[in-house]
């Protein structure tokens, strides 16, 4: 599974509607509105790079109000749970 983070700039007045429209696109798992240089962040999960190549320019970028996208492909996921599991390998809970 390929995970990508899509940073999205949108026209201010369209942010709520654009966020919902993006969230409704197949392959988009979550959309966050945020402060800072970008207006929305979408998490995308697809099986193949070709799907990602279609999803971002073919669907997300065409949502009304979307001005620009910047896509980052994830290599590896780290979480607190993963880190704790790695350090507890071979240790008993006793």
How is this structure best described in words?
- The structure is a single chain.
- With 94 residues, the protein is of the alpha+beta class.
- It has one domain (2-87): Alpha-Beta Plaits.
- 31% of the residues lie in helices and 32% in strands.
- It is built from 3 helices and 4 strands; from the N terminus they run βαββαβα.
- Strands 2-3-1-4 form a 4-stranded antiparallel β-sheet.
- The protein is globular.
- The termini are far apart.
- Profile the largest sheet: 4 strands, antiparallel
**Helical content band:** 25-40%
- Supply the helix-strand structural class: alpha+beta
SSE topology string: EHEEHEH
Average pLDDT confidence is: 90
CATH-wise, what's the superfamily?
Lrp/AsnC effector binding domain/regulation of amino acid metabolism (RAM) domain
The side-by-side strand order for the widest beta sheet comes to 2-3-1-4
Number of helices: 3
Quick one: overall form? globular
Number of strands: 4
Low-confidence stretches: none
Number of domains: 1
Query: What's the Cα radius of gyration?
Result: 17 Å
Note the beta-strand portion: 25-35%
Oligomeric status: single chain
Give the CATH topology. Alpha-Beta Plaits
